[in-house]
Amino acid sequence: MKTILVTGALGFTGRHFIRRAMDNGYNCIGLVRDSGFDLCPYIEADLTDLYQLTHRLSSIDFQYVVHLGAVTFVQHDNISELYKTNLVGTLNLLQALLECNSKPQKVLLSSSGIVYGTPESMPIDESCPTAPVNDYGISKEAMEKAVGLRMKDLPIQIVRPFNYTGRGQASHFLVPKIVEAFKQKAPELSLGNLDVARDFSDVRDVCSAYLRLLESGEASSTVNICSGNACSISDIINMLSRISGHSLQVNVDPRFVRKNEIKQLFGSNQKLISQVGNVFKYTMEDTLRWMYEA
């Protein structure tokens, strides 16, 4: 039975991925900064501490690595922490992997579709130039470029997930915020532009894609993880109204409206499907119902 080392195991995606991997017959070892993790065996280590990380990894055996440890909130206000975790933390992990006893068969590194910025041509495929428009996107682009220098040393594949959601995602993210308003039968909700449409996936499908990519022979490449469809905020509200039987007043708050915002962004998942087949099982309404009924 093969073992996957999962960084960011305490996070939203990490927990879902570990459950999915164990359901598919894998052992998992979580890498966390604090004790008390309950899903699988774990080690405590800080990605930004290279000495500690190398020491802890040298004592365990694993065949695969899924690197999900990162600052994931775009509006994160500690810029130093964002770059240190997303860039330096990733490079520390790769350096530690080169020095430890286990030589992984595959290392999956999570970047983000945000590295593309706001191109006007859709769908966005992997040949689209990167042009991030915020520090989060720049931290991921810098990580990708630095990792590219190290692909000759390790079997690395970079994934660029677009927006995705599901049970357990923090309430400061948009979709959980809307779902919670319907669950609480709130009379009104303040949002930004309602006609903005983005490419949303279900976290369960994203985790399935990660597992299949681990098992594939692909390496030294970058692949989008996206549904290939755009769903607007208005669509989400209408779906939740049907699911809940509740209607609420939506107010457009100017504080949440971004200037020159691209109305519609969605990616191409053709490269992913060509490598591992179609992993997309859930519609957006399936996902919203799953979240609402939690």
UniProtKB/TrEMBL annotation:
Annotated InterPro entries: Epimerase_deHydtase, NAD(P)-bd_dom_sf
Q: State the pathway, as annotated in the record.
A: Bacterial outer membrane biogenesis; LPS O-antigen biosynthesis
Which domain of life does the UniProt lineage start with? Bacteria
Domain NAD-dependent epimerase/dehydratase, chain residue ranges per copy? 4-226
Q: Its family?
A: Belongs to the NAD(P)-dependent epimerase/dehydratase family.
Q: What is this protein called?
A: Nucleoside-diphosphate-sugar epimerase
Q: Which organism is it from?
A: Marisediminitalea aggregata
Specify the taxonomic lineage: Bacteria, Pseudomonadati, Pseudomonadota, Gammaproteobacteria, Alteromonadales
